[in-house]
Design a protein that fits this description.
Low-confidence stretches: 162-166
Largest sheet: 4 strands, antiparallel
Shape: globular
Structural class: mainly beta
Distance between the termini: 34 Å
Mean pLDDT: 91
Length: 228
């Protein structure tokens, strides 16, 4: 295997949703140490530019400082007013931040769109719904999972037990994935080895599978061809 490009960062990343673009977004990874022990925390865009043969190590096409490191990052396709789409960051400080990818790349105005602080702890994972791309699922510390509409980002709703009188879960959600055939179904994996299927319509769990060894679930994915 031949390496085509190298990005000298310890980061989480998301590809541009455009099929005609070779752009990649990165956010400085939470809980990790860079090779040079840098304290910088940044959101950056990179152009792989595979037609260029000058060198393998890339330099960022755009870079801005952020006040918290990233656990995850997602990039949704272009929408009205956002010609290159919207980048969402799941931050270590519990914030959900949104940026305008076009403004970030070209520097034509402030790319920052909004910050939401609904989560009480770190957001560990997030993903846009593949059918309704305005819907964004975020999950993280103490088993909190929210669904947000980026057109009304200040008013998300929570899955599972309602916030009043809620007893915090002992485990964190580490990863999630939307079903690729049924728009309102998603799955989460936890730090104590449980995998939970959620029905977003009812805002409740449909099924939970548990690993008696309590090993963390680091990643999971639905079969793209089957509903279950």
């Amino acid at each position: 295997m031949v390496g085509l490009r190298e990005i000298p960062r310890t980061a989480t990343f998301a590809w541009s949703p455009s099929t005609s673009s070779t752009l990649l977004a990165t956010g400085t990874r939470a809980g990790a140490v860079d090779a040079d022990f840098s304290n910088d925390t940044q959101l950056e865009l990179w152009d792989l530019d595979l037609s260029n043969t000058k060198g393998i190590e890339l330099q960022p096409s755009a870079s801005i400082d952020t006040d918290s490191r990233f656990h995850d990052i997602a990039w949704v396709q272009p929408k009205d007013g956002f010609s290159r789409g919207v980048i969402a960051g799941a931050l270590e400080n519990g914030s959900l931040d949104l940026w305008d990818a076009e403004k970030l790349l070209n520097g034509n105005g402030d790319p920052f769109i909004s910050r939401t602080t609904t989560h009480t702890g770190a957001i560990k994972t997030l993903q846009f719904n593949p059918f309704r791309t305005e819907l964004l699922a975020t999950a993280g510390a103490q088993g909190e999972i929210f669904i947000s509409d980026i057109n009304n980002i200040a008013n998300p709703f929570r899955l599972g037990t309602g916030r009043p009188n809620t007893v915090a879960r002992a485990d964190d959600f580490e990863c999630l994935d939307w079903n690729k055939k049924v728009p309102h179904i998603m799955v989460t994996g936890s730090s104590r080895g449980s995998v939970t299927v959620w029905d977003v319509k009812t805002k409740k769990e449909s099924l939970t599978l548990k690993d008696l060894g309590r090993k963390p679930v680091a990643a999971l994915a639905w079969d793209p061809e089957k509903a279950s």
